[in-house]
Every structure is written in C-alpha cells, then in structure tokens.
Design a protein that fits this description.
The structure holds 2 protein chains of 2 kinds. Chain A is an alpha+beta fold. In chain A, 35% of the residues lie in helices and 15% in strands. In chain A, strand 3 and strand 4 form a beta hairpin. In chain A, helix 2 crosses helix 5. In chain A, 44% of the residues are buried. By secondary structure, chain B is of the alpha+beta class. In chain B, the strands form 4 sheets. A 5-stranded antiparallel beta sheet of chain B has the order 3-4-9-5-6, covered by helices on one side. In chain B, strands 10-11-12-13 form a 4-stranded antiparallel beta sheet, with helices on both faces. In chain B, strand 12 and strand 13 form a beta hairpin. Chain B is globular and about 55 Å long. The chains are: A alpha+beta, B alpha+beta. Chains A and B meet through strand 4 of A and helix 2 and helix 5 of B.
C-alpha cells in the first residue's frame, strides 16, 4: 500500500507492505541511517525515533502504522548547518563513545525536553531507561541532558 | 501481503466475518517481537485507525477506557489516577517510555502474557471488558479473561472494545511489581489491590496477583485478611499471598522466590494503600 508521512519536516510517500518495519522504511528507503538497529525487539532503544513528538522504537512499529504521522530522526535536528543544542551538549560533555546508542539517546532526551524543559535527574533517568548505552556508564549522557536544559533555561 | 485497515467497528466486523483466519494488530509491541519483518502467515487487521477504540471518559458511575489507549495515556491521565491508582501505576511500569507510547491496554489483556501488568490492575478495580463480534456484544470480568500463558477467554471473532471501571466512593488502590531491574522490566511478580474504606475500616477488598500461570490470579484469602485485619496486617496479608502462590504453582522451582517476593510486595502495596488512604482522608 502507498502511505504518506512527514519525515524531518518533508512530506514523503512510500510503498510498504505488512512486514516492513518503520526502521526498514527509514533506513533502507529514505537512507536515514542514524536510526540504528540494536536488539530488534524493543529493549535497547537504539532505533528510537519521534512519532508526533513521542519516542517510539521504530523496530517495533510496522511502517504502515506511521501513515499520516510526523517522524523526526537525528538527521532532522540540524538547522541551517548548525547542530541542535542537545547535540552540542552531547559533544561538549563527551556523552558519546562508540556512538551507536547516541541517535536514540538524543531523540528520547529531545522528547523529554520538549515536554519538560527543566527535568530533574530522576526524570532524565526514567525517560532514558529504555535507551541502553554499553560505553559511557550513562553519567556523561545525563550531564549532557542537564547541560542542554540549563543552557535553554539561561537563554530565557 | 497488504494489511487490512478498517476505519470503523462496523468495517472491522465485516472484515472479521469474511477473513477466515487473521491477526489483530494493536500497538504492535508484542506482535512485532513475535513476527518482526517476516511475512505474516495470515492477513493482518490493523486496529490503529478505529476512533471508537480510543478515549478515556468519565460518567457518574463508571470510567470507560478505549482498548487502544496506550500505557502512556493511562499513566499520564490526571483524572484517572485518583480513581484508578493501581491501573495508572501498572501502566507506568510497563517497559520503557518508547514501549508505553505504543503498547495498548487492550493488547496487554488480549495477549495474556502471565507477566502482563495491567490485567491484574483492571481485575482489582472490578473492570469489565466490552467484547464485540458480529454476533453481538457482551461484558466479561477483566479477572476472567487471562486463563493461562498467552491464553485469553476471548472468542476468535471477538475484539475488546473498551474497559468499564465502576466508580466506588471510598475506594483506593495500589500496584506493586518485582522485576530483574527497576525499569524496563518484565514482571517476575506483580500485585494489584483495591480496598473500599468506610470510617477508616476496609469493608471490601480485591486482590489479584500476576505471573503465577496467568496474568491475574484472584486471592480471596488475602482479601479476607484486609477486611478482617485492615491495612496494617502486612505479615498476615503476605502470608495469604504466599499461600495463594503455593496453590497456584505447587512444586515449581521458582515458588520459593515468588513467595518471598509476594511477602515483600505485600509490604510495598499496603504502604501504598495507606498513603492513598491518607491522601483521600478515608
């Protein structure tokens, strides 16, 4: 079937069947390879994308269920050649090592900050519970989210 | 194969009548783990386009929750928590944020995993599921639907449309869960309890424990403890739960663990109930 959806602000259409997952559509058809497949069963969060602003595992969603939806991947964060503040904070705080979990981690954190611009450390930990990192030990990641939140608050 | 995507319950009923075998797809968080990108062995009917399966509405006597409401919608619903704390808590403890954004309350019941979190909570709140087929509609007690590991007492041509929770004055509830870690965890044991208080006394209690062969094991002995001894009787309440576990899974290697877990959950859940009672000044 043919579906239409908005991906990173651009209206796209695609031909999908029942067994195509959202991650397959994003990676294989749209070449958005920031979306990573880790476990493939919804446990690691590497494939996280934002569906209408909400984090979801793109490996657990049939592509056709994303019809008429708005999807955000990390490729859509950069504006006019400049990284999103959250991406900058991840770089400044050394919150990435191998980088495989980073796109999912950033998108979940992005969704959190859109809903709750000043999250507590506990709220950050709860929000990121579904994103597994095997390198950093999480501390720099949490600090990066706090840093981005603090910078956004100071701008106001 | 292309999915079938009904827009209304009437269209769905027609598809179910004509398709001989089919799979119903709700949020996909169980379906995709089982089937992933493999081509489906039978037609898939997608429930995500049916508006009638959505909504959380309140009337004087009951709360109606559409079967396609997500765990996130339940856990974040400000109006629901004061009246159905155990259900909100159970929903908020399912999987990760990502999973809760897709997983549905109807799917959690229909999939009938013994470790599902919301069926026990719905049962403790005396919820009834509204089941619809081309033969008509019927109401079934939530506690009667999970009948074994991934077995639900739902006919092949029936679908869960909504859950109906009676509103009872003076009722409080709490949910507890033990998993391998505090977040993103499948329950090793869960417990949902509701109690109706009158003048500080428990006059009615509903206790359901999950993971012991089915998602919601009714524990009448533990209910009796709460009515007779009140919300302080942690040891006797835990003892009754441990006894119920022994009767449900006699001789199972995990029984000792489940019994120890039941006693710990008894303390947690009664602490939660006492806090609820204080909040409601009951």
């Amino acid at each position: 079937m043919n579906i239409e959806l908005t991906v990173n602000g651009r209206l796209r259409s695609a031909n999908v069947d029942t067994s195509m997952r959202l991650i397959d559509l994003l990676r294989d058809e749209f070449r958005l390879t920031s979306v990573k497949e880790g476990c493939g069963v919804g446990e690691c969060g590497a494939c996280t994308v934002l569906l209408n602003g909400e984090p979801v595992c793109s490996c657990l969603m049939p592509a056709f269920q994303a019809r008429e939806a708005s999807i955000l991947t990390v490729e859509g964060l950069e504006k006019n050649g400049e990284l999103d503040d959250l991406q900058k904070s991840f770089l400044e705080k050394d919150a990435t090592q191998c980088g495989f979990c980073t796109p999912g981690m950033i998108l979940t954190a992005k969704a959190l900050l859109m809903k709750n611009p000043t999250p507590s450390r506990d709220e950050i930990r709860t929000a990121l519970a579904g994103n597994i990192c095997r390198c950093t030990g999480y501390t720099p990641i949490i600090e990066a989210v706090e840093d981005a939140a603090a910078k956004a608050a100071n701008l106001k | 194969m292309e999915p079938m995507i009904p827009a209304t319950l009437a269209e769905l009923a027609e598809m179910i009548k004509t398709a001989e075998k089919f799979r119903l797809l709700a949020g996909g968080t169980d379906y995709m783990v089982a089937h992933g990108r493999t081509a489906p062995d039978r037609p898939v009917i997608d429930l995500s386009g049916i508006a009638e399966l959505h909504g959380i509405t309140f009337s004087e006597n009951e709360i109606v929750i559409g079967a396609m409401e997500t765990m996130s919608a339940l856990s974040a619903h400000a109006g629901l928590r004061p009246k159905a704390a155990c259900l909100c808590e159970a929903a908020s403890r399912v999987g990760s944020w990502q999973i809760r954004n897709r997983a549905t309350v109807g799917g959690n019941m229909a999939n009938a995993s013994p470790a599902a979190d919301t069926p026990a909570a719905l049962a403790a709140l005396d919820a009834k599921a509204r089941l619809v087929s081309s033969r008509g509609a019927r109401m079934a007690a939530a506690g009667d639907i999970p009948i074994g590991p991934n077995r639900a007492a739902i006919e092949p041509d029936e679908i869960i449309v909504s859950f109906h929770l009676p509103i009872k004055p003076g009722r409080i509830s709490a949910f507890g869960k033990i998993g391998s870690r505090t977040q993103v965890s499948i329950a090793r044991l869960n417990l949902a309890v509701s109690a109706v208080l009158e003048g500080g006394r428990v006059i009615e209690a509903r206790v359901f424990m999950g993971t012991l062969g089915a998602a919601a094991l009714h524990c009448p002995e533990a209910e009796k403890v709460l009515v007779e001894k009140g919300l302080e009787a942690e040891e006797q309440f835990g003892g009754a739960l441990a006894h119920a576990a022994a009767e449900a899974i006699p001789g199972r290697s995990t029984l000792a663990y489940k019994q120890s877990g039941a006693r710990a959950l008894a303390e947690d859940v009664l602490t939660g109930l006492r806090a609820e009672a204080m909040k409601g000044r009951l």
